[in-house]
Design goal:
about 300 residues, Rossmann fold, about 25% helix, six-stranded antiparallel sheet, single chain, alpha+beta, 2 domains, 9 helices, Tumour Suppressor Smad4, 18 strands
Length: about 300
């Protein structure tokens, strides 16, 4: 019999994960799947709880939460045979969105979390695995601010955080090395993406794919505050890539040198410099559709 663990983040979606816990467990029973519920009381316990479950011989871990919980899960499950199912109830849900796992109701999402898996690439940033993107510059500051906001919650927190951080924005000098080719840029933002979305559904790299063995690099150059705001208003559809100071590159190995924080999947990864690589087929994701969404 299939051995499945169900991991809940009690804080995800303002407690939504726990509010749907009983319903998900009932649905799984109807689908004739026996599960063990894992409910860590503190985020520092999450990876240890997952490791214990993996050591017990599970086939599938279903994570009920957002990008932060998924990030912790993949840092345990990467390069193992354990399948990760995702039921997205977080703030951004960008990884689930990139794989078509955020659509439908709870029953459909639960069925997807038990479906056959696809192999998905991951980002390796220094020693950390990341599912969606590694960010530095203005979007890193926005992401940090959004996580600190108590109100509003959901994707609107990114809009508020953008407006709060905009007056403080100042482009910085970065040295990039893409597959051995080095160059220097003055940029408001550098984003290294494995998938199209960041910031709660914004298409920062609309053609990025989780299965092509490459990372998309979006560089937003030396723009003023008003121009940057206009560009970010277009990120929702991916039309910002038409701006003359926005450049998109593709590479499998990237080094970023400069100053400032780096974040990935909404989590703090430390400070620059960073060495970033694609990790091919590093994680098995249940029910995933790894085709890039494109623009629009």
């Amino acid at each position: 019999m299939r051995k499945v663990s169900l991991l809940f983040n009690p804080l995800a979606g303002k407690g939504k994960a726990l509010s749907v816990a009983d319903e998900i467990q009932s649905l799984l029973k109807e689908l004739d799947v026996e599960t063990e519920a894992l409910i860590p009381t503190d985020r520092s316990q999450v990876e240890g709880v997952i490791k214990e479950s993996v050591d017990s011989g599970i086939d599938t871990l279903i994570a009920v939460g957002g990008d932060g919980l998924i990030n912790q899960a993949v840092n345990v499950l990467a390069e193992t045979d354990v399948v990760l199912g995702v039921i997205p109830v977080g703030t951004g849900n960008d990884f689930a969105r990139s794989l078509g796992l955020n659509s439908g109701g709870l029953l459909e999402q639960t069925q997807k979390a038990l479906s056959p898996a696809v192999k998905v690439d991951l980002i390796k940033c220094n020693s950390n695995f990341v599912t969606t993107s590694v960010i530095c510059g203005f979007p890193a500051a926005v992401n940090l601010r959004a996580n600190e906001l108590r109100f509003p919650k959901g994707s609107s927190s990114y809009t508020v955080a953008t407006l709060m951080e905009l007056p403080l924005m100042s482009p910085a000098i970065y040295r990039l090395k893409l597959d051995g080719k080095s160059f220097e840029v003055v940029a408001a933002a550098v984003v290294v993406a494995n998938s199209a979305y960041f910031g709660g559904g914004m298409k920062i790299c609309p053609d990025a794919s989780t299965s092509d063995g490459l990372l998309d690099v979006c560089v937003i150059g030396d723009v003023g505050k008003f121009d940057l705001l206009r560009s970010f208003l277009k990120v929702r559809t991916g039309d910002h890539v038409d701006h003359p100071k926005v450049s998109i590159f593709k590479a499998s190995e990237i080094e970023i040198t400069g100053t400032g924080i780096i974040r990935g999947d909404g989590e703090q990864l430390g400070e620059l410099p960073a060495k970033i690589q694609i990790q091919r087929d590093a994680i098995n994701i249940a029910g995933g559709d790894n085709q890039p969404p494109g623009r629009g």
